């Protein structure tokens, strides 16, 4: 019996031209595309995937929509809640693979940005493989991440000269500025709170990167923080959802001078 294959393909942040040549080739002979559909408000995200499939899959294919299980957004135990959510997603995808992907066929999951960066698909596939009920071979095709697109849109490097870059979440940033970090990229921040941070930090913020709805704001945090929160709230109300990311940078030289002067 021929093995099923699942390809996890990074598709960038919304611009169809973000697909790499490798991603285009990986899509060409796909039999079924599996899409985790969160809710009606994000139907346009599913439509973007459908358009990508129509443009690049060169054979008759199926788009299988799998209803994404709900997740508590403010849990008491974040780790266990997310693990339970991943297990529930694994069960639904496993059922979809069994029902809609035959022996020897190729399935695909299109991952926003890069599947290795703050995306759960690879962990979910590990869950399914560990259960052993629906065997398949896995292949991962990297994509253009929102981190790269953010820096490109603002025309800035991610790091200072010889400086470090930390990629983290809003949940972790709430505890304060990470020690020894010069630049911090923040993802998955559902309710950005900047008040506790140094107002002299520089922020580069972006939402809906790569799409016609892209929004960019940059400047001194103390001058732009409130504007970002306002623009973000308005955009989320208008679209029903938001995907955003931001880079914070401190002037290491200025910090060192201030410390020496003190």
Automatic annotation (TrEMBL):
Cross-referenced InterPro entries: 4pyrrol_Mease, 4pyrrol_Methylase_sf, 4pyrrole_Mease_sub1, 4pyrrole_Mease_sub2, CobF
Domain Tetrapyrrole methylase: 7-223
UniProt entry tagged with the keyword S-adenosyl-L-methionine: yes
Catalysed conversion reaction: precorrin-5 + S-adenosyl-L-methionine + H2O = precorrin-6A + acetate + S-adenosyl-L-homocysteine + 2 H(+)
Domain of life the protein comes from: Bacteria
EC number: 2.1.1.152
Swiss-Prot/TrEMBL keywords: Cobalamin biosynthesis, Methyltransferase, S-adenosyl-L-methionine, Transferase
Keyword S-adenosyl-L-methionine on entry: yes
Pathway: Cofactor biosynthesis; adenosylcobalamin biosynthesis
NCBIfam families: CobF
Protein name per its UniProtKB record: Precorrin-6A synthase [deacetylating]
Lineage: Bacteria, Pseudomonadati, Pseudomonadota, Alphaproteobacteria, Hyphomicrobiales
């Amino acid at each position: 019996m021929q093995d099923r294959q699942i390809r996890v393909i990074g598709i960038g942040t919304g611009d169809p031209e973000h697909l790499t040549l490798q991603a285009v080739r990986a899509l060409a002979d796909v039999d079924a595309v599996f899409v985790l559909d969160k809710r009606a408000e994000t139907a346009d995200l599913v439509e973007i995937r459908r358009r990508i499939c129509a443009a690049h899959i060169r054979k008759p294919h199926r788009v299988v929509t799998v209803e994404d299980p709900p997740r508590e957004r403010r849990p008491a135990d974040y780790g266990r809640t997310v693990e339970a959510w991943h297990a529930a997603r694994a069960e639904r995808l496993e059922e979809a693979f069994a029902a809609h992907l035959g022996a020897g066929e190729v399935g695909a999951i299109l991952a926003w940005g890069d599947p290795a960066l703050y995306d759960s698909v690879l962990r979910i596939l590990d869950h399914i493989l560990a259960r052993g009920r629906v065997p398949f071979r896995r292949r991962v095709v990297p994509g253009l991440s929102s981190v790269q697109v953010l820096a490109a849109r603002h025309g800035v490097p991610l790091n200072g000269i010889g400086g470090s870059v930390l990629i983290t979440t809003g949940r972790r940033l709430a505890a304060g500025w990470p020690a020894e970090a010069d630049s911090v990229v923040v993802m998955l921040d559902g309710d950005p709170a900047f008040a506790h941070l140094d107002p002299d930090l520089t922020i580069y913020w972006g939402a809906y990167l790569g799409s016609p709805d892209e929004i960019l704001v940059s400047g001194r945090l103390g001058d732009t923080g409130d504007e970002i929160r306002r623009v973000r709230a308005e955009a989320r109300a208008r679209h029903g959802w938001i995907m955003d990311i931001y880079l914070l940078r401190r002037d290491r030289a200025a910090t060192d001078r201030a410390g020496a002067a003190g």
